[in-house]
Amino acid sequence: MQQIFNFILKNSYRLLFLLLFSISFLLTVQSHSYQKSKIISSANFFTGGIYERINGIHEYFNLKTQNDELAAENARLKSILFNTKDTTKTKEIDSIRGVKKSDVIVSKVIHNSFSVYENFITINSGAKDGVKPYMGVINDHGIVGIVDNTSKNYATIISILNIESKINAKIKKSNHFGSLIWNGKSTGFVQLIDVPRLASVRKGDTIVTGAQSDIFPENIGIGTIDKVYKDNQTNYYTLDIKLFNDMTNLGHVYIIKSKNREEILKLEEKSKKDE
Amino acid sequence: MNSALLWNIARFILLLAAQILVFNRIDLFGFINPFPYILFIILFPVNGNKYGLLFFSFLLGITMDLFCNSGGVHAASCLVLAYNRPSIFKFSFGLSYEYQTVKLNDVLTPERFSFILISVVIHHFILFILEVFKFSYIWEILVRTTLSSIFTVIFCIIIIYLIKPSKR
Fold first, then answer.
1. Which of A103, A104, A131, A123 has its CA nearest to residue A52?
2. Using CB atoms within 10 A of its CB, is residue A254 exposed (0-12), middle (13-18) or buried (19+)?
3. B66 to chain A, closest Cα gap in Å
4. pLDDT by residue (tens digit) across B54-102?
5. Are B73 and A28 inside 8 Å of each other by CB?
6. A46 contacts B66 by C-beta, under 8 angstroms
7. pLDDT number for residue A117
8. 10 Å Cβ neighbour count for B155?
9. Are A161 and A187 in contact, with CB atoms under 8 Å apart?
10. Of A36, A83, A234, B77, whose CB is crowded by the most CB atoms within 10 A?
11. Do A180 and A168 form a contact (C-beta atoms < 8 A)?
12. Nearest CA-CA partner of A241 in A159, A161, A175
């Protein structure tokens, strides 16, 4: 017993280092496993509050671009409104099919990172407003990411600029599916992998979210094809997608409640058990 | 003794604030981020409490991780730097560094420069390895380490000169 105490006393500096280091290493490993609620995240009262303050100042310098964007969206919506053929028909207010207006939460980005390989966005609405993990986040240009962690007033989002994120997407005109990933190189481009060779892909084709995703509704814009790579070993295409969204400049975002997700998951669980 | 403690606490808060408010927003070419907040560990008194240094490094790193959503990356790299600080001192200032009472925030000599450089490179290398966490990205890790280190060293030296207490 005496010797154990002596050992601890002698090496206490090293042991303290090892203890603290293993804590931080565990936190690191845990943060790299995809979609697990993290202990250390900026969705909390302290960091969220500070980011909101900072954003209040930052937003002020950004007013002009935000105004331009709102004006552009207004113009687009007006053009839809004025160019409808049947003016007597009552209009569907929301352009996203399968999503009711009540299922969309409007929120504001208060912190956005895009310079590392695993990027996260912090927004200023949380569990209090009904935000839950695994909800899809979009803005008027296209998809932004998936909700990761929530606290009472804040939430973090896994940006599509995160090498761990994987989203089901398809080519709009041909319905061929692939997985959307990011290779960590450029903030303006993401990659669509595992697109079958049968698909006809051309530069400039539009990529939208696919129906297999239980997070995003179908047909939400992502970007256009910029480059096509053929993989000779696997018979699949890899496509460079130019994003509609400027991920370095995000203002207001919309969070989509997906009602069917739990039902789909339950059903899939059940069929797995039956096998 | 008491004023040294107060100085350290002030440094801790000010450097963290500067890092989060200013330096985290510098995205040079999209991927170069200077991290001058590690000046806290570099400038910690040579004869100060080493347990305290370890503990405060951990606290510093974990606060950065809270703001960056990065798990325990900053905490781990700060700890490695704090733990290896005596050996870096030995390397840069010679064996008897403890008796010379090294003061870092003073005129820049080659010894001081080498100490800052080695500390920054060690911290950044561990940081980027843990942040990327994939060995297939080893070139990107090396490039990021080199470029970010250069900027961090420049900012560190500028900050040291700015807050250097005037003696005359």
1. A123
2. middle
3. 5
4. 888 999 999 888 888 888 889 999 999 999 988 888 888 877 666 556 6
5. yes
6. yes
7. 81
8. 19
9. yes
10. B77
11. yes
12. A161
Interface contact flag, A42 B132, Cβ < 8 Å: no
The tens digit of pLDDT for each residue in A102-116 reads 578 888 888 888 878
Question: What is the Cα–Cα distance from B140 to B146, expressed in whole angstroms?
Answer: 10
Burial B122-152 (b: 16+ CB within 10 A, else e): bbbbbbbbbbbbeeebeebbeebbebbbbbb
B70: exposed, middle or buried (Cβ count in 10 Å: 0-12, 13-18, 19+) = buried
Question: Closest Cα of chain B to A50: distance in Å?
Answer: 9
ipTM of the shown complex: 0.81
Residue A181's φ and ψ, nearest 5 degrees, are -130, 175
Helix (H) or strand (E) holding A119: strand A118-123
Which residues in chain A have their CB less than 8 angstroms from residue B73's CB? 24, 28, 31
Q: Side chain identity at B165, as an amino acid letter?
A: P
CA–CA separation, A195 and A181 (whole Å): 12
Rounded to whole angstroms, the Cα distance separating B13 from A69 reads 38
Q: Which of B58, B71, B79 sits opposite A32 (nearest CB)?
A: B71
DSSP state of B28: B
**Nearest residue of B to residue A186 by CA position?**
B30
pLDDT in tens, A172-219: 888 888 888 888 888 888 888 888 888 888 888 888 888 777 788 888
Residue tagged 């919506």 (tokens) = A77
Q: What is the pLDDT of residues A217-246, one digit of tens each?
A: 888 888 898 888 887 777 788 888 898 888
pTM for this predicted structure: 0.76
In this complex, do A32 and B133 lie within 8 Å of one another by their Cβ atoms?
Answer: yes
Contacts of B133 in chain A (CB under 8 A): 28, 32
Q: Please, are residues B86 and A49 in contact by the beta-carbon 8 Å criterion?
A: no
Q: Is A149 helix (H, G, I), strand (E, B) or coil?
A: strand
User: Residues of B near A (CB-CB distance < 8 A)?
Assistant: 20-21, 27, 30-31, 33, 50-51, 54-55, 58, 61-62, 65-73, 75-76, 79-80, 83, 130-134, 137, 140
Q: Which residues of A touch B27 (CB under 8 A)?
A: 114-115
* DSSP letter string, A178-190: EEEE--SS-TTEE
> What radius of gyration do chain B's Cα atoms show?
16
Confidence class for position A74, pLDDT limits 50, 70, 90: confident
| A15 interfacial to chain B (CB closer than 8 Å) | no
